[in-house]
Amino acid sequence: MTMLQRIGAFFGGSPASLPGHRFIRGVSHVNIGVPDLGEAIAFYGKLLDARPIRSFPRFRNAGFARSAGFLERPEDIEVSIAFLEIPGAGLTLELMQYHSPAAEDRIARLGVNDIAGVRHIALKVVAIDEAFSHVAAIPGVRLINPSAEYRPFRIDGIAASEFQFHDPLLEADAGEKAKVAEIVGRIRYFYFVDPYGVQWEFEQGHDDMGH
């Protein structure tokens, strides 16, 4: 395992040399419920340059409905679905607009420290200041802090003593610990929330540390 693979493992990556999970083989997609599929496709196209690759308009399928938990009258379930890919990110969005039963808007305004399921989706970026300006200018987007002073900040420098590897060999390697500390000190990021209640993170600085 290379040093970068090991650092990637520390940050949640999955080096190829590690044994595979007994049944998980990767991330399939991120699902987002929306009130209007066409508007949502256009929004994510503008925000993330996401491109639709498959659509299932007014989809009715009893097996699909049962898997989604609709065990009573599954034949009545109707949903429009679109799959979008974000170029170069390896991430697929699945947008769903339920027609029957009609969806209820329950988007909650949460703080970054609140517990409520998955709290954000992080994308690696370059030119983060340009990305910040792009995101901030899109109607419907809410930066995590409305202050004019909010921007992508750099993580303060850290010491090797502030974190630990779970691999004893890596934990004992002062050089690898120092490299992680150096990389962490280069990271800049910011949060924002889209109109559908999804909190995103754009992050720059450790694209060399695995996936």
Give structural notes:
It is a single chain. The longest helix has 12 residues, at 37-48. This protein has helices at 3-10, 37-48, 62-67, 128-136, 168-171, 174-184, and strands spanning 30-33, 51-59, 78-86, 91-100, 121-124, 142-143, 153-154, 188-193, 199-204. It is built from 6 helices and 9 strands, in the order H-E-H-E-H-E-E-E-H-E-E-H-H-E-E. Strands 5, 6, 7, 8 and 9 form a 5-stranded mixed beta sheet that branches. With 211 residues, the chain is of the alpha+beta class. The radius of gyration is 20 Å and the shape is globular. 24% of the residues lie in helices and 25% in strands.
Structure summarized in a few sentences:
The protein is of the alpha+beta class and 211 residues long. It has helices at residues 3-10, 37-48, 62-67, 128-136, 168-171, 174-184; strands at 30-33, 51-59, 78-86, 91-100, 121-124, 142-143, 153-154, 188-193, 199-204.
What distinguishing features does this structure have?
alpha+beta; 6 helices; single chain; 25% strand; 211 residues; 4-stranded mixed β-sheet; globular; 5-stranded mixed β-sheet
